[in-house]
Amino acid sequence: MAASSPAATLDVVGIGNAIVDVMSPAENETIERLGMNRGGMTLIDTDRAHALYDAMGPAKEISGGSAANTLAGLASLGSRCAFIGQVADDQLGEVFAHDIRATGIRFDVPARPGEPPTARCLIFVSPDGQRTMNTYLGASQFLPSAALDEALIADARILYLEGYLWDPEEPRAAMKQAIAASRGAGREVAFTLSDAFVIARHGDDFRALIDAGQIDVLFANEHELAALTRMDDFEAGLASLAPRVPTLVVTRSEKGAVAISGGERAEVAAEPIERVVDTTGAGDMFAAGFLHARVAGRPLAECLRAGSICAWEIISHYGARPESDLKALLASKLG
Amino acid sequence: MAASSPAATLDVVGIGNAIVDVMSPAENETIERLGMNRGGMTLIDTDRAHALYDAMGPAKEISGGSAANTLAGLASLGSRCAFIGQVADDQLGEVFAHDIRATGIRFDVPARPGEPPTARCLIFVSPDGQRTMNTYLGASQFLPSAALDEALIADARILYLEGYLWDPEEPRAAMKQAIAASRGAGREVAFTLSDAFVIARHGDDFRALIDAGQIDVLFANEHELAALTRMDDFEAGLASLAPRVPTLVVTRSEKGAVAISGGERAEVAAEPIERVVDTTGAGDMFAAGFLHARVAGRPLAECLRAGSICAWEIISHYGARPESDLKALLASKLG
Asked: Chain A, 46-105: which have a CB under 8 Å from a chain B CB?
């Protein structure tokens, strides 16, 4: 952060999809039979959404959305946050708005009247905890640049952006404008690549943003690292990307995570876990722990460890929003 | 069942509120501060629903409704079921209809267009697992007699009715008509008293139904038994009520349950449990286990034990719909 920036009243403002998750356990055979991309995220249209919902077992509705989940984690840790995303003026929109505000996150974007409805993600959770996501974007893809409160963005130490939202046109324009607003105020921009499919479609954009120095903290998992660098070898990918971003954070599921910042490299093992119930939100919650520790000025290794502990909490239960007091959990685990 | 009745193709048809539960953990102080009836069920209007939702933490939406929960348990056990209840033509109505059909239950009542919206129950779950329910009945209270499929009712071995639904006028008339249809076809009528507040308002109706021999199986908890018999002493209440219904089942939470049928008395202890997570649906699932065993012609003590095992499953997790394969659970526990 530039030394000249005025003190921020917010820690993180996030821009992302405003989604309600519809979650149900499913056998692997069902996921295969329905032709889903197991473990991945697939965008679906109205017809496919109806067909998959009809084929889905009894479900639970729990607010989700990648950046929104990260903010929920950050707020649970005590960070001051605001969310920017688009819901429709319907019952699922009310559910999303209620849940994010009830978590203590500022959320002022008005609901969008009429069709399409609020975004939902049909999540099939396999017996091993793997989640297969099918996202109907609905209203979420119509987040207009006009919804951006630039003063709010300038007032947050970190602007956090979700790669998923780079795909639809209106939010992409809004996010570019947000990056300019944040950087203009001397703040930091953190970006999560979200999924290999987004990189397949927008990799050139992302590489250009990175090389133009627009991203201060980049989150990726190892598949996204490979897709972005076009290098299958993990270390080669790291070596290629790390010099181009001030802070690079790469998560590797059960293999832990690596961060490289200003030439320093830190690694963390995954927290030991008895049973993985549902991996939905693991990456989102990792980012929450990492950013919270970063805002608090903690060393790189501790940022990684905080991310790892928060990811551990989320995969131990159903749903992508924290159920424990993350602040107390972190205090007990970090000592 | 009269020996002359033709074979039924359904085991149980249930009539009840079509409700989506909105569940959130809450401290006891919050429940007290908001003036809620801790552990009970309170009907709320639109304004109170908004005020309580605003005060509620981040929540999960899970289909509920007392009789609907019982049917979900029965279907999970392998019973053939149909549900009659009223949702509105909105997103929560779609959620309810999806979940009940995905459980394998026939549900043909068309959604009701326009206002009010689908019923919801705001459930605050205390750290000890106690649930405090605030029900906004919405569309559910407008179940018309016209929605009854009398052929369907005549085709089910048991008609299961929820006392909660006795309160609003239209469903009360529909339930009376359903009792006549069921009895006319030589089937059995099972009734759950649901809550002491319903007995306070409609106790005379219930006593008249019982004394007219309209109810074959009556479910009550000990508070409802006391309210219905106006006797505080448990044994005195039992002794007063048992001779008036063919089968009386009284649940007593951690004290287990008692059933009296045709002069035979059976008792069961509560299943030992490590941690009560959420008591929502315990009575509903007890009824599911009991009725399933009854339909299978099992002895009274085994019906009680099946109820107890199903109640144990539901209080070990969040939400009132079963998450385990109840059939396998029962087989493993009953041997």
From this structure: 53-54, 56-63, 72, 90-92, 95, 98-100, 102-103
User: Of B293, B292, B282, which Cα lies nearest the Cα of B315?
Assistant: B282
What tokens were used for A135? 């996202």
Separation of alpha carbons A219 and A120, rounded Å = 24
Per-residue pLDDT tens digits for B222-279 = 999 999 999 999 999 999 999 999 999 999 999 999 999 999 999 999 999 999 999 9
Per-residue DSSP letter, A318: S
Question: Residue B72: its chain A contacts at CB < 8 A?
Answer: 58
What are the b/e assignments for B181-209, b being 16+ CB within 10 Å? bbbebebbbbbbbbbbbbbeebbeebbeb
User: Going by C-beta distance under 8 Å and a sequence separation of 6 or more, which residues neighbour residue B264?
Assistant: B300
Residue A153: both structure tokens together = 């963005």
Flag whether residue A189 sits within 8 Å of chain B, measured between CB atoms: no
Helix (H) / strand (E) element for B22: namely: strand B19-25
- Domain chopping of chain B, boundaries: 10-17+66-107+143-334
CB contact under 8 A, B99 and A58: yes
CATH number of B10-17+66-107+143-334: 3.40.1190.20
With CB atoms and an 8 Å threshold, state whether B61 touches A57.
Answer: no
- The secondary structure element, H or E, covering residue B294 is helix B282-295
pLDDT tens over chain A, length 335 residues: 444 578 889 999 999 999 999 999 999 999 999 999 999 999 999 999 999 999 999 999 999 999 999 999 999 999 999 999 999 999 999 999 999 999 999 999 999 999 999 999 999 999 999 999 999 999 999 999 999 999 999 999 999 999 999 988 999 999 999 999 999 999 999 999 999 989 999 999 999 999 999 999 999 999 999 999 999 999 999 999 999 999 999 999 999 999 999 999 999 999 999 999 999 999 999 999 999 999 999 999 999 999 999 999 999 998 999 999 999 999 999 87
Q: Are strands B257-261 and B41-43 parallel, antiparallel or unpaired?
A: unpaired
Contact B56 A102 (CB under 8 A): yes
Superfamily for domain range A10-16+66-103+141-334: Ribokinase (3.40.1190.20)
pTM score, whole prediction:
0.95
Using CA atoms, how far apart are residues B225 and B220, in angstroms rounded to an integer?
6
Cβ separation B60–A62 shorter than 8 A: yes
